[in-house]
Amino acid sequence: MKSRINVYARIRREDVAKRLFYGVDRSSNGDTLTLHQPEDDHRKKRISHRFRFQRVFDLNSDQKDVFESIAVPIIDKTMDGRNGTIFAYGPTGSGKTYSLTGSHSNYEKRGLIPRTIEYIFKFLTETNGRYIVYLSFLEIYNETAYDLLNPKRTFESGAEELP
Question: Annotated binding site: which residue ranges?
């Protein structure tokens, strides 16, 4: 069985989008995101960087679109017995928490985690059988893993094997 890692980008913050001019070229092989750093006093020319992603979600992408494109295929494969992981990475303030948890006051803007839990339990109620569901949330920051469901528990790099 062949598996692969899909990498997605989400442009969440309007101030970043304005500061780093960007363009997205879409193709059947994925999206290419081009970032343009503006000229400054030290650099007399604009520098561009190109990155290829499975898909780039722009400022107009909503939580439902992100969930259906990223999480649903992973959840469906997991329900067939395969492993799946969604891993959010980026600098502080880039929108990881919003993408994962969403808005607590607006149900339509809930993130990947509450949508995933809802999707899994809906699947389980529509099938016969008994199930045990385990849930864990880890945050890795400065080489320390934090158990977000048990704030007293941390794992230092190499100190303890994660469950």
Answer: 90-97
Q: Classify residue 61 by its DSSP letter.
A: -
Q: Which residues are annotated as a binding site for ATP?
A: 90-97
Pairing of β 47-53 and β 30-37: antiparallel
Structural domain span for residue 4: 1-59
Q: Spell out, as residue ranges, where the chain has pLDDT lower than 50.
A: 159-160, 162
Tokens of 52: 């290829």
The C-alpha atoms of residue 6 and residue 15 are separated, in whole angstroms, by 27
How far does the chain reach from its first CA to its final CA, in angstroms? 26
Residue 54 belongs to a domain:
yes
Total domains, the chain: 1
Going by C-alpha positions, the residue among 120, 115, 41 that lies closest to residue 80 is: 120
- Provide the 8-state DSSP code for 127: S
Is 23 domain-assigned? yes
Which of 114, 102, 112, 162 minimizes the C-alpha distance to 138? 162
The pLDDT of residue 37: 76
pLDDT digits (tens, 9 = 90+) for 57-81: 988 899 999 999 999 999 999 888 8
